[in-house]
Amino acid sequence: MKYHIKNMIPSAVRQKVHPRKIQAFCIGTPKTGTTYIASIFEQHYRAAHEPEDIVIVDKMYQHYHHQLTDDEYSRFLRRRDKRLWYDIESSCYLGYRSDLLHQAFPNAKYILTVREPKSWLDSNFNDNINYPASNPFNAYWHKVLFEPHKYSYTRYDAVLQEHNLYPLDAYLTYWVSANSSVVQAIPENQLLILDTRKLNSSVKRLADFLKIDHDTINAQTTYRNKTEKKYDIINLIDANYLQDRIDTLCSEWTSKLFNL
């Protein structure tokens, strides 16, 4: 109810009555702790995880299929932000085109949550089975982010195909492109990279980066959006093939991301 009442107030009035404390976007890939990042700010800031996900995925899909220009997509992001007026927004969908996001918000701060490839694959396999692409919403964002139509299954991908998952290279190529595009698009002084394994111990770094009081971040909040049903698909893939594809596709960026 509070959310709906707030959004009935004209945006210009709301911006004066409730000026922003900060403006930051967390744009990690799926299953890297973006839900947690939003939750630790909720007590003291206007923060949300994937608000209006259906709307933004629809716009992503339109832009991906050249039905929206870069300028039109950037304008959509600005109008949406002016209306929602969050201090912190955490969403993998906003990372779709981080260059256009930064173009729309050149003065914002950006947080990139990263997870090492094997653990990330395992979590996304579980998530994609639990929330399959037979759901049109999932099919839309999977097509834009994972781009499965660009890949063919190899004999080593048989177990993935059997579970209606995508070829291994589709996932790993997305992992590389999503993370590298953020690093390349966002100036170093506006970007904080956080290892998912160390989120609980990153409060000081996060507060210092955003120039806020450490006590306004509730690091003791419990993790949400944990995968409840797991399938151990990662251990059904040939181990040598899996490691070879991770090394071939991801090694440059694992070195850069986890040694910063």
Structure description:
This protein is α/β, with parallel strands linked by helices and 260 residues long. It is built from 12 helices and 5 strands. The protein has one domain: Rossmann fold (3-Layer(aba) Sandwich), CATH 3.40.50. It has helices spanning 2-6, 11-17, 34-41, 53-64, 70-84, 98-104, 117-130, 136-145, 158-162, 168-185, 203-210, 239-257, and strands spanning 24-26, 47-49, 88-90, 109-114, 191-195. Strands 2-3-1-4-5 form a 5-stranded parallel sheet, with helices on both faces. Helix 4 packs across helix 8, helix 5 (70-84) packs across helix 6 (98-104) and helix 10 runs parallel beside helix 12. The N and C termini lie far apart (42 Å). 32% of the residues are buried.
Task: Write a brief caption for the model.
The chain has 260 residues and is an alpha/beta fold. It contains twelve helices and five strands. The chain has a single domain, classed as Rossmann fold.
Number of beta-strand segments: 5
Q: Low-confidence parts, pLDDT < 50 over ≥5 residues?
A: 1-5
The proportion of residues in beta strands is 5-15%
The CATH architecture is 3-Layer(aba) Sandwich
| Total domain count | 1
Indicate the CATH topology.
Rossmann fold
Based on Cα principal axes, name the global outline.
globular
Number of helices: 12
Rg over CA atoms? 19 Å
Q: Which terms would index this structure?
A:
260 residues; alpha/beta; Rossmann fold; five-stranded parallel beta sheet; disordered N terminus
